Amino acid sequence: MVLGGGFAGLNAAHALRRVDADVTLLDKNNYHTFQPLLYQVSTAYLPPEEVGSALRAVFRRQANLTVQVGELVDVDWAQRVLRCQDGSTIDFDYLILAAGAETNFFGVPGMREHAWPLYTLTDAVRLRRHLLSTLERAARNVSPRNSGSGGRPIRVVVVGGGPTGVETAGALSSMAHEVVGPAARLGVTLVEAGPRLLSALSPRSSQRALIDLCHRRVDVRLNRSVKAADSCGVTLSGGERINTDTVIWAAGVQANALSRALGLELNRRGQIVVDPQLQIPDHPGVFAAGDLAAIPGAPDGRPLPQLAPVAIQSGRHAGKQVARLIKGQPLQEFRYRDKGVMAVLGRGDAVAELPLSRRMTGRYPLQFGGFVAWLLWLVVHIVYLISFRNRLQVLVDWAWNYFTSRGTGAILFDAPESPSCDVPANECGANAGTPHPRDGSDSIKSQQPGPASVRPG
Q1: Is 167 a catalytic residue?
Q2: Number of folded domains that form the chain
Q3: Final residue before a domain boundary, out of 304, 326, 348
């Protein structure tokens, strides 16, 4: 039994393809999401179907695997039975928990209700609809005579200076021009609580990212944290106020709430504690992988970071351990192979840091940026996309975007309705006449998983 259809779950299931066993993959959704490209969906550079793959299509050639869509609510460890929300039950002999992570708002007042998270495909599509409808509304209010200069910039605040925040801010800086032309402008502010961007990279790469974003007219605020959010803006540390109705949250994730519903030992970040073999102590034959697990192996003694490469490798390892148990072989310790880090800054520009050997961790001796780093980033992401069709289509779209400077997914459909706002639009001081993104159907609460929901990751 594999729980979760994200990077860890897919690789765990794939590792069991030659095992004489019936494998069931359970996920809340019937598709896998390639999360590193969600920001390109939200900014209308890629359509949603190019970063999502139907799970049954992914495993169409794996005869021993069945995909089941459902939401886990409880586990009977004594009887080794999973209970789903619809009342169904699933027996298991071996279990791999790979339900991923979910957005973490760190308790910032008002952020859950008023920010746009960017962690699931649903998040990306909702943000995309909101941004496109906002731009179209602004373009409609500009007369043909002054369309060359546009009106007042539409302010967007991105919270978080990690790879997701930096990549999103860079894409937003050119989105308005490429979607509606000069009739509307996006003013982008990136807020980072730490002293530099991309803290996982070297200071040199961080400085390069800062300079690049400033050249793209992104207003970067370092050493600033968001203290509160409401329907018309955010309040930063020190009392500074930024008026906006578009706050994009890219400041962090936490282990899926499922971890807190299973009665297992957790670390302070809510991750399931596992041994060096990725097996859960006192639960033989039960493993955890990916963002849900506190995987030992980081140089500083802390668990490995919640990154796609960690999820891919740990998921594959967990699947192989189940295969070894079925064959009566001893378990093996998990060893993470650090392949480096990279982040795209904009079209034709990125930063990359690579190790010289597979065993090297921490700071990387190979540091470079620019067009070469962007090509490397492009190749890596193409390789890790699930299906051949997705790889080919994304490659074609990226090539088109690069040479034409236009997005391919800028079709507006099912624009969000205008919800009620406790402050009149003309008093918000930003995006006058633009309704707040939240309504009954698109509420943040409806996006958050329940106490035991399964998220792909």
Answers
A1: yes
A2: 2
A3: 326
